[in-house]
Amino acid sequence: MGAMLATGILQTVGQKGLEWLLGGSGETLLGLQIFRIIALIGFFIALIQVVLHLFGIGDVHADLDASDHGDGHAISWTTLAGFSLGFGGIGYMLLKAGHSILVASLGGAGAGFVLGACLFFLLRAFNRLKEETVFDIRNCIGQVGTAYIRIPARSSGGQVQVIAQSRMVTLPAISDEEITSGEKVKVTDVIGGDTLKVERI
User: Fold this and answer.
1) 152 in the same domain as 84
2) Which terminus of the chain has fewer Cβ atoms in its 10 Å neighbourhood, N or C?
3) Cβ-proximal residues to 56 (8 Å cutoff; 6+ apart), any chain
4) Which residues on neighbouring strands pair with residue 160, listed in sequence order?
5) In this structure, are residues 39 and 92 in contact, taking their beta carbons and an 8 Å threshold?
6) Comparing 19 with 148, which gets the higher pLDDT?
7) 3-15, pLDDT tens digit by residue?
8) What is the dihedral of CA 93, 98, 103, 109, to 10 degrees?
9) 112 is in which domain, residue-wise?
10) Is the pLDDT confidence value at 79 over 70?
11) What's the start-to-end Cα distance of the chain, in Å?
């Protein structure tokens, strides 16, 4: 008796589950609500990330493990927001167009993965551009440049031009020996945070 009851329950659950996937009227309404909620969650996550970024409170590419490298981590709040928007939005539209919940779910998942991947690669490129834009004077160490203004021995007042991070920069320079304007120099150190120590080459 108990086995027959359990079998009947499983059959009923399986049948209802299949009907939900294929989409009846009530199931379709529920599915639309679920897809809408998922899309709204993704939208609000993205909105919060943008607001935090604009106010300097958070980082738009902060990873879930709190390591903000912006590169190599495929799962982030932003990519999750993109997946949720794609999954919920496309799923909602497919279901609204008359497709089954199964088709809408598969289509939404595909769209979510595509949108999430696009955001991941877009953020990685943006972060690399940001790193190149922010100038770090320590990148001048080891570079070869030219004395722009004569550099007195062990005294300030000289300047050098050197290429670092794909740009030409002119910076204060000091040296242990006098270097005349136009001579080639090599940067050996950074002094005081904004002055290069150079030597003639």
Assistant:
1) no
2) N
3) none
4) 147, 171
5) yes
6) 148
7) 554 454 445 444 5
8) 10
9) 2-133
10) yes
11) 96
Per-residue pLDDT reduced to its tens digit, 127-181: 777 666 778 899 999 999 999 999 999 998 999 999 988 888 999 999 999 999 9
Residue 36 sits in the same domain as residue 6? yes
Rounded Cα gap, residues 53 and 122, in angstroms: 16
Same domain, 97 and 154: no
Structural tokens at position 150: 């004569």
> Which of 103, 133, 163 is the endpoint of a domain?
133
Query: What distance in Å separates the CA atoms of residue 128 and residue 158, rounded to the nearest whole number?
Result: 33
SS (H, E, C) the chain: CHHHHHHHHHHHHHHHHHHHHHCCHHHHHHHHHHHHHHHHHHHHHHHHHHHHHHCCCCCCCCECCCCCCCCCCCCEHHHHHHHHHHHHHHHHHHHHCCCCHHHHHHHHHHHHHHHHHHHHHHHHHHHHHHHHHCCCHHHHCCCEEEEEECECECCCCEEEEEEECCEEEEEEEEECCCECCCCEEEEEEEECCCEEEEEEC
Give the list of residues 6+ apart from residue 193 with CB closer than 8 angstroms, or none.
137
Residue 98 has which token pair? Answer: 């008359």
pLDDT higher at 53 or 145 = 145
CA–CA distance, 70 with 76 (Å, rounded to integer) = 9
How many distinct structural domains can be found in the chain? 2
Same structural domain for residues 93 and 176?
no
